[in-house]
Amino acid sequence: MGSLDRGILTGFICRLCSEMHRVVLHIYGEEGIRLSISDKINRYLSINVSRSDPLPKTICKNCLERLENQHRLVMRIEQAALMLKGQRRARVGGNCYVSLCDVAGTSSNNPPIPK
């Protein structure tokens, strides 16, 4: 497989796990830019990558998969938060806060909610 120095020189070291891999994706290559890899790393991980830093600019398949899973999870959470806020606004518009409705489906100022 070669020495660690050779791996760093030829770009086979993953920026995230620092392991040598035969197949890596260049963070700032065409595919890396299309996938917004540097943006995702900077947003979701406690490290920052840039074109000008002296560290490897490649990511292995396993780390890329984990990064994409993190991205999907955050997108799902953000969409759920927007949906829940929208539902809350709809309830507020109907003059009924869930926390103010009692078990019978009434609030102090509103008629019973049909079941």
UniProtKB/TrEMBL annotation:
PROSITE patterns: ZAD. Keywords: Metal-binding, Zinc, Zinc-finger. Zn(2+) binds at C14, C17, C60, C63. Pfam families: zf-AD (PF07776). The keyword Zinc-finger applies. InterPro entries: Znf_AD (IPR012934). Residues 12-87 form the ZAD domain. This is ZAD domain-containing protein.
